[in-house]
Amino acid sequence: MKNTVQGSLITTFRCNAKCNMCNIWQHQTHQQDELDHAYYEKLPAGLRINITGGEPTLRKDIDDIFGILYPKASLLELSTNGYNTETIVALAKKYPKILIRVSLEGLPALNDAKRGTRNGFDHALRTIFELKKTKCRNIGFSVVISPDNYKDLLYLYDLSVALDVELGNSVVHNSWYFHKNDNRIISEEALLEHELFVKALLTSKRRGWKNRIKDYGRAFFNRSIHRRLRGDESDYRPPCGALSDFFFIDPSGNVSPCNGSEDEWIIGNIKEQTFDEIMKSDEAHEAAEKVKSCKRNCTFVVTERHDMLRRPWIPIKWVIRNKIRIAQGKPICWD
After folding, report:
1. pTM recorded for the entire structure
2. Which residues have CB under 8 Å from 137's CB, separation 6+?
3. CA 282, 288, 292, 298 torsion-angle sign
4. How many C-beta atoms lie closer than 10 Å to residue 299's C-beta?
5. Amino acid 184: pLDDT
6. Which of 124-128, 182-186, 261-265 is predicted with the least confidence, judged by mean pLDDT?
């Protein structure tokens, strides 16, 4: 299976939410200081590209960004809170082969409390309903597992199954990107709820075998999340692919390996250098060594996805073993 490098483009730090697990909204960029869309022309073709923020649909030139990247990306993603429905739907209609994930952190009351929005759940749900009317098919929700929303995981999964849309998930982290150092989950109850969520993924009732296989893959990714939540040493994770498998570009044009480090490891700036110059720079080599020796206990899906493609027999064996265990009434084996 082909391994495709992912570039995550943090188009803005402006945000119309005030999430309690992310403080980007306290460190917002000014519109005039954000990278002009024309610089994205410098990116090579064939990348998997995630357009993120902040809230990327606050960019007035978001259509120009998609116009540049849609023809050259192997897959173009939009991560959004779903508040600006008209803008999101217009992008889906114009660029129907994009992937869209709308953030939800729980059912209505909890979602809006966590994200600091008014009627945020309503906006997200309305956006999904409107997207389902378009030719864009790769749509769904995403959730960040945190200390106060793990009880809603199953409900969000059931909602996604009922609507026949995807549900991606991650878990809280601390880093320069999130401006947080107090995100953590220490709860036996959270572990129990998370195991129920993974069991639901492993016994997927989705329509179509491709959708069920996606759930099985997400279950395997959540294996790493579960082991992180219970405090395992970090050797359960696959080797980090930051800089070789994925990279980030911030709103000022700075290129860095990842968004999980304590400080931003800047290796160059796309405004001042070519992409090739940045990736072959001394700064890039130094950052690659930092990645090798990094001890941060990150669990990001982009690392897991690449490892699953390289060593597919590992998730396949784990999924089969645990489907058998569930059928026998046994708990999931996380090792």
Report:
1. 0.94
2. 96
3. positive
4. 24
5. 83
6. 182-186
Cis peptide before 116 (omega within 30 of 0): no
Q: Round to whole Å and give the CA distance between 4 and 300.
A: 16
The whole-number pLDDT of residue 1 equals 45
Strand partners for 101 = 79, 140
pLDDT digits (tens, 9 = 90+) for 10-25: 999 999 999 999 999 9
The chain-wide mean pLDDT, for the chain, equals: 95
- Structure tokens that stand for 118 in this block: 């008014």
In the chain, what is the straight-line distance between the N-terminal and C-terminal CA atoms, in Å? 25
Nearest CA to 143 among 100, 98, 111, 184? 111
- Distance of alpha carbon 335 from the chain centroid: 24
Enclosing H/E stretch for 103? strand 99-103
Instruction: Show the tokens assigned to 212.
Output: 């069920």
| pLDDT confidence tier of residue 233, bands split at 50, 70 and 90 | confident
What pLDDT is attached to residue 2? 56
Is residue 81 within 8 Å of residue 16, measured between CB atoms?
yes
The span from the CA of 335 to the CA of 92, in Å, is: 40
DSSP letters, 140-192, are: EEEEEE-TTTGGGHHHHHHHHHHHT-EEEEEE---BTTTTBS------HHHHH
Selection from 104, 131, 138 nearest residue 210 by Cα = 138
